[in-house]
Amino acid sequence: FGPLIDGEQLNRLQARAERGREDLVILDLSDGTADDPMATHKAGHIPGARFVNWREEINQFPFPILTEGSAGALQVPVRRVLQAKLRDLGVNRRSRVVLYDNFRNRAAIRAMFVMEYFGKARRVHILEGGVAAYTAADGALDTCGWPADCPQAERRGRIRLRRANTAMTIDFDGRGDAPGIRDLVSSPREGTTIIDARPYSMFIGDRIGGCIHPSEPVYRRGHMPGALARPWPDNESAPGYFKPTHELAELYTNIDDYGDEEIVLYCNEGLHAVYDWFVLTKLLGYPKHLLKVYEGSIGEYSRQSFKPGV
């Protein structure tokens, strides 16, 4: 099973789990409503899927304020908090975890990125197409009423997460000897490419970007100096489904020294940057150690007193 699975593959995994041959954990990261984050999950979920409020439970919450004047941003959670949550969901070291959402794979990919950041990099999969793919493979959905009636782990998991792999991210000021976004923009260096994963209209400044979580726009239009545009929707063949690998590869041919170049990805707040991270690392095999995600992204960058080009 690769990083992407379809409904039929999930059916096979469920059958193996029923025979005791698989420690399968299915996580539903679907958005609900403002009044009830579990609304979509209650109305119909894959049998046994456990609900995760991805906005609050796989990110730091309340959303940390990275820059004065901002209402908050997405950041990877504290390790012990995420570990406790995964254990509550029944995740063990050898668990096979399947992630899905109703958000065109974005929440699921964010969860995969966060899990890999803390060492859970293997046996984690995205259900491409979410519940639509599952029902298309003759899978029936379950419903539930109160949260206590919805699927829960039979026993607490025992996963032990590793120390944060901070090499997967970059911040504004840098860490120790490692440069930050400020350094890469003010003094571009050979061997590093910055990629903007937002829709192209935001890249060229026709439309101002916005951060989903604080529901606020970024401070200025446009993109970081020298950045290349690789809009996350361009990776899709249809909403929730990825293009074939050879077509995905063509999208990134404008990167000089492809495969040897360090790539820094950003978006408005760190959500869509990890989408391109998934395509590059999981589907195209780009060396992981050469990829970094700027989580604060334009939402933070545009609020700095230093912000050339945006």
Give the fraction of residues assigned to helices: 25-40%
The biggest beta sheet is recorded as: 5 strands, parallel
- Low confidence ranges: none
By DSSP (H or I, 4+ residues per run), the number of helices equals 11
- Beginning-to-end CA distance, first to last residue: 41 Å
Strand ordering within the main sheet: 1-5-4-2-3
Order of helices and strands: EHEHEHHEHEHEHEHEEEEEHEHEH
- Strand portion: 5-15%
Please tell me the overall pLDDT: 92
Cα-atom radius of gyration: 19 Å
Structural class: alpha/beta
**Record field, number of beta strands:** 14
**What characteristic shape results from the CA principal axes?**
globular
Can you give a write-up of this model?
This protein is an alpha/beta fold and 310 residues long. It is built from eleven helices and 14 strands. The strands form four sheets. A five-stranded parallel beta sheet has the order 1-5-4-2-3. It has a five-stranded parallel beta sheet with strand order 6-14-13-7-10, with helices on one face. Strand 11 (236-238) and strand 12 (241-242) form a beta hairpin. The longest helix has 12 residues, at 7-18. The chain is globular.
Give a quick summary of the entry.
The chain has 310 residues and is an alpha/beta fold.
Q: Could you name the key traits of this structure?
A:
alpha/beta; 310 residues; five-stranded parallel sheet; 27% helix
Topology:
Blueprint (H helix, E strand, L loop, with lengths): L3 E2 L1 H12 L5 E5 L10 H5 L6 E2 L2 H4 L21 H10 L7 E5 L5 H12 L6 E4 L2 H7 L32 E2 L10 H6 L5 E5 L3 H4 L6 E2 L4 E2 L10 E2 L6 E3 L2 E2 L2 H7 L10 E5 L6 H11 L7 E4 L2 H5 L9
Parallel strand pairs: 1-5, 2-3, 2-4, 4-5, 6-14, 7-10, 7-13, 13-14
Antiparallel strand pairs: 8-9, 11-12
Helix pairs in contact: 1-6, 5-10
